[in-house]
Amino acid sequence: MRAPGPARTSGDEHVRAGIHQSITAISAAACVALAGGLTAAVTGGAAVAAVPTTRTAPTQHSTVVVRGLAFPEGRAMRLGLVGCDNVYERVAESPQAMIGAGPGSAPAGERVLGYDLVGGNALGPLSYVSSVAQTQSAGLTAYAEQGTTGVVWAGYQEPADRRTGRVWFGRAEVVVPPGQWTRIEATDLTYSWSKWDMYAQAPVADSVDEGAAEEPVPDGTLADMVLRHRGDGAGFVMTGLGCDGNEFAIDALRLHTAGTATTYDIEGLATSVTMPPPPARRAEAGQPVELRGTLVDSTGTPLSGVSMRLESRAVGATGWKLDQVVDVVNGAAVAQVQPERATSYRWRFVDRPMAEGSVSAAVTIEAGEPGASGTPSPDPTGSASQSPSPSPGQGAAPSTGPQPTKSAGPTKSAGPTKSPTSAAPSTTAEPTKTPEPTKSAAPSGSPSASADPSTTASPGASATPPVDPT
Asked: What is the pLDDT of residues 46-73, one digit of tens each?
């Protein structure tokens, strides 16, 4: 199952905060579910047995897509870790989940869930049911490249033990042959039975049928137990693999009880990428702009230990290109860009075996001319004016003496107008004034120094093992 089996959650493939390890164990706490009223309907003080003689088609059939290991709330389906020989005696380990494609076609959807245990434990789906008699299907489809062994634990609480910790435990060994997908159906198995006190986590002394002292309890199916003890009751079914330590994959977990059949399809985590608005959407060409991105799973939990791609596209261009790869820490990625022209950016989380990909909406950064800060340039044309030439052909410099300097090209004056009060007519024309020279604007072309655009992203922390089953 190494190839193309489930991918191990290591390095960039490991989504530390996003995978919800919902592995539990059959413990004293589980007895609360059985002793607290998860029993068949009671009429007139006696439990009504409803033992199906044949399997019937479910009135409702649905498929639940499980993202990562985020099983729906409730006790219908979760993952369990138990001992192979004794339900309560487990080998100490922290199972590491593997989610990926194949091998071959997945029994449900596109991905499967895999584990590689140390041996001595069994891991798989654990379902609590309110009616053992109405439980017509419970199990999984499994694959092991080298084959693997496992165990199915079943629980049944007879009517006489209602609201106590006394529960019948049934044990049946199972084998998955090498190199092929195999269906394991718990309701078809024959179990060896013994009565346990789930509060004390120990077998009870009188775990034999009445009238059959000193004789072991006969083996039988779940339906046999309901008939033998004359009544329906609450219970559980736990199908676990990996007792021999061989790697295995499971999918299409199934539970059909009380007329409803549900298939649980293990798939990768659903993710969501967003880009908060940057502090400014306009900057001088070549100046650094900080862009941030956030990455969470479908529950809103920030993800870590992975990376995201920052992609860019110049306005007017087609196609996105990779700008940089940034590590994600606690759901956050930070990058600096230095656009030379108007450019759009977006964050992308690439699809991988453990999680599905997603992409953010794009943000466009406008890039202005260097030195432009929103204040109009003194020279509307954007270029510095030339100093006035002293050459007569170019216009004389303004005179500083009392007498005005004649213009190099004077305009002819109209003839003097005689004034009756004037003693002497004017004989000179008013000199043409030379315009003041335009002050030269400071030449542009020396953009302000930009900050160092490079950033050092700290690599993701090492993979954190899943929650230790309690």
From this structure: 333 444 445 666 678 999 999 888 899 8
